[in-house]
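ok here's the first one, seq then struct tokens
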Amino acid sequence: MSSLDTAILDRVGRHLFLGFQGTSFDEELRYRLKTLRPGGLVLFRRNIESEEQLKALTEHISSWAREELHRPLLWAIDEEGGTVQRLREILGRAPSAAELAAAGPDILERSVGETARRLRQLGISVNFAPVLDLVEEPHKHFLGTRSLGPDPQRVSDLGQRWIRTQQGSGVLAVAKHFPGLGPARLDPHDHLPVMSGLSAQEMDRHLQPFRGAVAAGVAGVMTSHAVYGCWDAQWPGTLSPAVNRDVLRGKLGFRGILFTDDLDMEAVRGRFEPETIVRQALTATVDVFLVCQKEGSAEPLLRALHDAVRRHRDLQDAHQRSTQRLDEALVLCFDISRRLR
């Protein structure tokens, strides 16, 4: 990395949210953060031993980032409840989205609010929830009980309550997986789902919960790695300007932070060169690239981001617009924190 412009690396590193190994801030992790200069870190069960250990970890790294990077790091997690719960050992079992939907909006708000308050206490400011995919038969679908249900209006209503409660309790919400994985039959963790038989009109019902999320002021949206042939038969949603720039930002009016789903998933990993991922994603108005499982995946992406911003005016402009959105998210995050003290 020594041959690259450090000033550019610092700016483009903000696009990366990284997973990492271990439960302490050791020299290897310190070197990795100093080299890659990410905008955030994503926590998994492998990073968590106890409440005391996790608090010490987030505080130590956050303090280091302010000193070394001269900017804060955002901490993110998938704490949906049910089968996707990284903090089960600390928080105890939380109900799934399906269980919360069945229990009703009051219990949903109480559960989501309590989770968000605990996340804030642990130093976590972004939760990749709620799931807004419409799932007809959870026992047959790979998302299972992670969905709030099959009805667009009810999922929209419950999703808005989830978002307002979570953000009102101090944690930025990220609605996923845009524009909807409900029609997919293959899990992007293992395959590339291709949906070629659905029209834009048929997909419109899957957009309804995301319309509601935007109306509720959701801070973030996470992309889907599936291919939506009605809008773009060539690129997965994550890399598609037609899906993200035209539909999400253009049609739905979303102005917040757009996260990729994990780029280490098999739907994307190894299918595209880092330069292609960067060009397509920036053009599609993606702000944050998640690299959570394979540590070797991050450096090629950072190099590609560096070269994109240095060599291509259109990508430099896309990067600058994205940086403004990231700045606004930081302001929102810390405004919420101050308000809740």
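and now the second one, same deal
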Amino acid sequence: MWIVYACGSALFAGLTAILAKCGIKKTDSDVATAIRTIVVLLFSWLMVGIVGSGSGITKLSAKTWIFLILSGLATGASWLCYFRALQLGDVNKVVPIDKSSTVLTILLALIFLGETVTWLKGIGVVCIGAGTFLMIEKKRVSGEKTEKKSWLIYAVLSAVFASLTSILGKIGIDGVESNLGTAIRTGVVLIMAWLIVFVKGKQHTLKSIPKGELGFIFLSGIATGGSWLCYYKALQDGLASVVVPIDKLSILVSIGFSAVIFKERLSKKAAIGLALIVAGTLMMLIKLPT
């Protein structure tokens, strides 16, 4: 059943990137992140109320609180970098780099969680790494001779923080109802996101957000909420080294919609890279006979 939740996470995560891209054409990415986190928080606590796990918050250990908070901080950092990268770069360039966090997550799961890595998973990691490299293409800015590279830096940082989120989250939700864990983590992200907005003095831009973009920001928040709830339920019941690769298949959803909505096209090199990423991800799901 946890595999079904992982697939649901991938679908919603793929839609998140597209909806967010539509909502940050003119809106500052940090402000958009802070707003959409409110939606995710409301969504998360709504689910806590539905399943009736709110009372469990008084039973959490100090260790659980620490790792949930650390996971939330890592998530916040990943979000801020990811949506800044989306604002500066194309979806079909940013998303593959963000999804490369699979490789680092598997290595961290091996080191800190003791999860085994078979030779087939090893090949899968190599495919994902090679595919990501092939999909990294510089974004040329129209009318300029120089190339804008800042989106690449933000995308890489997003991947690093995302991998830390998975490991810290796996430790933090041990013995915690998944919806409650998600809600607590989201609260941490919300505080972090709004602190960034006020520290950078961007709160004055709230009044100038186009209504259309605000709608897409809210929708992306709902999609993120759905993705998170599915993801951490799958992570709680399954292996991080399997759940994470399935979640990363959201790249197919994002790139598919980016081609339709934003008319973004993959080069032959990038298409080969995408095929390698998908092939490597699917290898993670194959169970070898023991």
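notes on #2: The CA atoms of residues 5 and 230 lie 5 Å apart. The chain is about 75% helix and 0% strand.
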